[in-house]
């Protein structure tokens, strides 16, 4: 199907259609609760706190992994922030996620999607395999939950996932 609309307009329309189809933020129930938990599970403060505890209490094996993951989170956050300030795409309209809307009004790329996929890439690269596979299953759920809760468009999380893979590979290459 060819149209005279520019690609950017077609992507914006696809983003809006997917967002309205998948939106659960305004529908109370178990699916909304699960989406909210998944959407928050990619928060950087949560991961940095958990990695700090792992670094303090873990064996040398886990201390090393916690350190690499924390460095990855910080570097990825800087790259995402730089891109967000260049692109300056506003978040979708909505009520859920006011903390994100106030502290970071820009949606492209999704920092949560980038962070979760970067962590999955590092988990697969550093091991153990079960850890990497768990993170790989979790990462796209975080990305989709961000769209379902109305704080990102589909293209935000797709870009975030791609950026996360690249960042994970770059961090891995720096620690090899």
Percent range for helical residues?
A: over 70%
Overall number of structural domains: 1
What are the low-pLDDT stretches, counting only 5+ consecutive residues below 50?
none
Rg is 17 Å
DSSP E strands, number: 0
- The span between the termini is 47 Å
Shape: globular
Order of SSEs: HHHHHHHH
List keywords for this structure.
mainly alpha; 176 residues
Please give a structural write-up.
The protein contains eight helices and no strands. With 176 residues, the protein is an all-alpha fold. Helix 3 runs antiparallel to helix 4, helix 4 packs antiparallel against helix 6 and helix 6 packs parallel to helix 8.
Topology:
Blueprint lengths: L6 H16 L7 H11 L3 H14 L2 H28 L10 H6 L7 H16 L2 H20 L5 H21 L2
Concise synopsis of the structure shown:
By secondary structure, the chain is mostly helical. Helices cover 75% and strands 0% of the residues.
